[in-house]
Amino acid sequence: MEFLDMKRPTIADLAKAAGVSVSTVNRVLYEPEFVREHTRTRVLAAAEEIGFYGLGTIKHAIKAPQMAHRLGVLLQRKERTFYRLLGEAITQAAQTYPGGGIELTLEFLEDLTPEKVATHILSLGSRCEAIAIVAPQHPIVADAIDSVLEQGVPVVSLIGPLTAKGNISFVGLDNWKVGRTAAWAFDRMVRVPGKIGILVGSHRLRNQEMNESGFRSYFREHNSGFTLLEPLPTYESAVVAREHVEKLLTEHPDMCGLYISGGGVTGAIAALRATPKRDDFVVVGYELFEDTRAALIDGTFSLLISHPIERFGSETIATLMKVKTAGPDAGVFRVTFGFDMYGPECI
Fold first, then answer.
1. For 84-96, b where at least 16 C-beta lie within 10 A, e where not — what string?
2. What is the enclosing helix (H) or strand (E) of 304?
3. CA-CA distance, 49 to 110, in Å (whole number)?
4. How many Å apart are CA 140 and CA 327, to the nearest integer?
5. In this prediction, what percent of the chain has a pLDDT beyond 90?
6. What is the pLDDT of residue 4?
7. The pLDDT value given to residue 6
8. First to last CA, the chain
9. Nearest CA to 91 among 287, 309, 286?
10. pTM
């Protein structure tokens, strides 16, 4: 009989009928959120026309991206320009994500004590299907993260990696490399090796601890002529940062440079501008925004190392979607990307 000679349409047949590649059909089947709506519709129409055996799967895939994905992001103080810009980039990435359907809860935390951070993590985890957080490494915070993970809500750490009993994914820079790059800059720009002051936001923020460790490791390996002063925590405060810089300049007038790897950078800028400018004094800072850009232009800063904000935003949303889709037993996703470097002549 004639029907015995008929073959069941394959994925290759469907791709040909829809005028797309086989890989596109596979994405429609297994990763529909990464395929544009008109392409998904075209594949569905072709599947109906040729009687594709997986028609039901395709119909489900077409509807899947229309489901709401409840994602949460917890950043630090909104008054800090960096976090405000990062929040805007994450919001934009959620709004333009292929397939849409993302309900983003973006919150900023003013009180950075471990107890407050932990409480907010628990609250966000109860309202979202996957969360991304900026948080200090602390037992109370780790316990809150484990509680969220036990509820089946994946957690992604932003900027600095975090550890807990459960698996935590990460999106950010290679902070060890950031520190070594800053040290390399001092080694190349300082005329006569001497003392370097160091500011960190908090010793509990692992990215800044790793920055400092990489910074010191470079000098141990390449140039022991520099003296690295003990790092001073700013607690992400511009007022504290200014006080520290003023004290450093007073107590160590022979300093050859200052490395600002944490928050409070505007206070550091104010303190540096209030002292006579020295051509042989090198300052390396962190993150490009209006104030630090002006500091580069007027010579207060020598170099800036910065997150690529738009890339950071898109990688955050993409990773949240991956961990949500993969489920709690899929392990961790580690996403690191290159950083930007800015000098006075390239901004």
1. ebbbebbbebbee
2. strand 303-306
3. 57
4. 25
5. 71
6. 42
7. 54
8. 75
9. 309
10. 0.79
